Amino acid sequence: MNSSANALQATFGNAIGRVVDARGETIVYVSPAKVRDVLVWLKQTAGQDYNYLVDVTAVEYRDRERPLEVVWNLRSLSSRQDLRIKVELDPRGELAVPSVVDLWAGANWLEREVYDMFGVTFTGHPDLRRILMWETYAEGYPLRKDFPLRGRFSRSEQVRQALNVNPEGHYSMEELAIADAYDELPRDMRDRLARGERDKIPNSE
Amino acid sequence: MKHLQTIDGSDSWLTTKVQSLFEWAAKTARIDGVVNKAVNLSRANSLWPMPFGTACCAIEFMATAASRFDLARFGMERQAFSPRQSDVLICAGRLPFKLAPVIRRIYDQMPQPKWVISMGACASTGGIFDNYAMVQGIDTVVPVDVYVPGCPPRPEGLLYGILMLHKKIKGEDLFDSSLRDEQLLNDKGLRLPPEQIDEVSEPFGNSVHQFRSA
């Protein structure tokens, strides 16, 4: 059992739910309201020092009664310890947890992926857009259990919407490398980026 | 003779000259059969492939291009990694919906004459990926000339498909300009009627019902 679990219980009291030891890996359930404080504490407290965010992901179970979980996998490179923090959310309610991009910059794309696939909103994220599916994707969140395997639209509608996407529309000012090279970009691209232009979904038939 | 036109449809001086030469040859000397044969033979034996490798089929494609199987034996000396200088689009691997507009643009950028080989089960039908993210056969996006089955096809399979394409090219009528018509997307943004796309994308085997367009 990871000793950080006991330290968390001592520090945060009843904001910490159950602590599970799953085959040598420690899982700590935290209340959604306190999860940001817990993660800040784990990153910044001397002796804890979880300076590497391995992954942010989410789990929805086949059992509809079970809550949807958002998972942070943390690792401390100095003390060589792993810790898994979980938050339970009601999948029928609002799915929102605080963003940790300011703590671990690597959380940026990980949180975008969870948002894209599960529809979990990370409040405070600087650029919360879809990352795997294209930005105008309108069928919902593919990894949710209520999402049909083949998507919600007919195949022809899916092909139509896919073909109507502008392949160059995926780039935006938020892609920092492009923003740095802004002055050297071709003029039409500069205009397009300055307008903040994105793909628009054409009217459905 | 549309195939001799430049991409924007205007005739350059050279294409006009070549065109009139062909027409003269066809009309006066009645050697259109010979011209046909000569042009098709040279086209078939100097195909420049544009590889569009998205998955494991691309590994087999690379093996086909490398020394053991050696595509160059069949006139595919040069891999054209630019659509502007290529004749055959080889889609090697599954095509996600996110890549559909990309392959469509590459196909539109290729000059006539052009052909498409759909390599592997996923490119041809969607294969095992009967899900929300995958195009169920690239023929719903671009016209396809040769389908190569396999998961992935062995290099021999791809070579067989290429030789089938050779055969097809050698049977083409040089003076049938309809073969060289650009097949652009229609006003609905599709290249096939919606019912037809639903039909060819219909799941089979143990798969369950798919939503149909109204």
Keywords:
heterodimer, A: 205 residues, alpha/beta, Beta Polymerase, domain 2, five-stranded mixed beta sheet, 7 strands, 22% strand, globular, disordered C terminus, B: alpha/beta, Rossmann fold, four-stranded parallel beta sheet, 7 helices, 4 strands
CATH superfamily of one domain in chain A: NADH:ubiquinone oxidoreductase Nqo5 subunit
By DSSP, the count of extended strands of chain A is 7
Average of per-residue pLDDT values of chain A: 84
Q: Helix and strand succession of chain B?
A: HHEHEHEHEHH
Subunit arrangement of the protein: heterodimer
Q: What fraction of the residues of chain A are assigned to beta strands by DSSP?
A: 15-25%
Walkthrough of the structure:
The complex is a heterodimer of chains A (205) and B (214). Chain A is built from six helices and seven strands; from the N terminus they run αββαββββαβααα. Chain A has 205 residues and is of the alpha/beta class. Chain A has a domain at 3-139: Beta Polymerase, domain 2 (2-Layer Sandwich). In chain A, strands 1-2-5-4-3 form a five-stranded mixed beta sheet. Residues 199-205 of chain A have low confidence and may be disordered. Chain B has a single domain (31-180, 187-200), classed as Rossmann fold (3-Layer(aba) Sandwich). Helices cover 36% and strands 8% of the residues of chain B. Chain B is built from seven helices and four strands; from the N terminus they run ααβαβαβαβαα. Chain B has helices at 13-27, 32-44, 56-65, 100-109, 121-125, 155-170, 194-200, and strands at residues 49-53, 88-92, 115-119, 146-148. A four-stranded parallel beta sheet of chain B has the order 1-2-3-4. The mean pLDDT of chain B is 84. The interface between A and B is medium-sized, with 27 and 29 residues.
